[in-house]
Amino acid sequence: WSVAREGITLAQGTVGVLSSELLPPASPYKQRFRQGAVLAPRALLFITPAPASPLGAGAGRISVNSRRTTAEKIPWKFVDSLHGTVEKTFVKDVHLGETLLPYRLLKPLQAVLPTTSSEILTVAKIDDHAALSEWWSSAERTWTTNKSKADPSDLLDRINFHGQLAAQLPTARHRVVYSASGKTLAAARIDNPDVIIEHKLYWAAVSSLPEARFLTAILNSTMVLERVKPLQALGLFGPRDFDKNVFSVPIPVYDRTNANHQELVALAAEAEDAAAAVVLDPAQDFKKARIVIREALNISGVTSRIEEVVARIVPEPVVNS
Questions:
Q1: Angle 233-235-240 (CA atoms, 0-180°, nearest 5)?
Q2: Which residues on adjacent β-strands are paired with residue 112?
Q3: How many Å apart are CA 216 and CA 262, to the nearest integer?
Q4: Which residues, in sequence order, are CB contacts of 289 under 8 Å at separation 6+?
Q5: Which pLDDT does position 244 carry in this prediction?
Q6: What are the residues whose beta carbons fall under 8 Å from the beta carbon of 266, sequence distance 6 or more?
């Protein structure tokens, strides 16, 4: 104890009991958001374009290699990379936590996924596409060889865990995404219906561009962040997981006839323009890029104006005692 006590800090604190009976009603948006698809192991799915052979990749095909990173975990960091050609239609843009900034998206990553605009292909339908079939067979063999012995799933099951990929097909014209974890919450809108969303992001389809901007402004606000912190998992470096706790804050449904909602939509558009104008260092990781964007928004003054409007729209939640 004589040694340990030097590294221990004592302070007064409070303990609160949270339950569905004590919390205010959840936002209606809680039921509309869901987690993205579990696209893992990445070494078998995510790719980078590769130089084509002198004869070319073939009509409608692209040469690709597995995208490898230092973040891969055992056993996947030791599996061989995949190389080959795939029909271009099965190379999908994917947004992840690392491509999301406040009010802005970085360039999406790419993955080989056996999906059309409306469905996940069955094994029989995969076999109808020669290049995809060859790639997917190699990926499936590697998955089967290296997955946990207790895991009965094949790779098709894995990518559609809990139906999280199928739920995105067909995709919507306007979607809002926000980060599942981190010290601060980041949110942006997606207007590309061909993009797939990975599980480090939560997403929802919305009816219009104004509703998308309304939600991104609220989700990016400091006020909502502070109110959701008591509900987050507390890690070594502070609260980490937002998940759907953010909707314990009573965020109302967008109303185009509400003057405050309209003002917030206009401010969100201004924030998007300000975020898009920031020149980012390609060498920076996404965490640093998020900080740079937030600093630029603060300097522009749009952040403080958004906070004022959000405070008028979202009431202070009152916990019943």
A1: 55
A2: 91
A3: 13
A4: 101, 106, 280
A5: 76
A6: none
